[in-house]
Amino acid sequence: MAVRRQVLSDQHVDRAEAGKDEFIEEWQDFISRYAWGEIWTRPGLDRPMRSAITLTALIAGGHWGEFEMHVRAALRNGLTREQIKEVLLQSAIYLSVPSANNAFSHARAVFDRLDAQEESTS
């Protein structure tokens, strides 16, 4: 749970935990134990590399809501916007130009929301 909070933010995890009910409780437990407790904590890759891989996989699968969440997580994990752009350009070659085009649109939307939040708190 600590890694999940570090990568996705306390706010995200608190929302997910608050939304648990009898139907989804086991799913949330599964994700916490396996994705965040087993995979994201392995020593073989650092978090920025895991974020780059995750972004690519989400583009490949067309999972745009999760992609946006992981764009924010990638920034939290130390990737720069420039590095995220490079991941998206790389994905155009190995996935498809339309997929990368969609990824750029979603990433820019995330960046725009983050910039607006920053401006409102300044």
From TrEMBL:
PANTHER family in UniProt: 4-CARBOXYMUCONOLACTONE DECARBOXYLASE FAMILY PROTEIN, CARBOXYMUCONOLACTONE DECARBOXYLASE-LIKE DOMAIN-CONTAINING PROTEIN
Carboxymuconolactone decarboxylase-like domain residues: 26-107
Protein name, per record: Gamma-carboxymuconolactone decarboxylase
InterPro entries the UniProt entry points to: 4CMD/NDH-1_regulator (IPR052512), AhpD-like (IPR029032), CMD-like (IPR003779)
GO molecular function ontology, one term from the record: peroxiredoxin activity
SUPFAM superfamilies according to UniProt: AhpD-like
Listed Pfam families: CMD
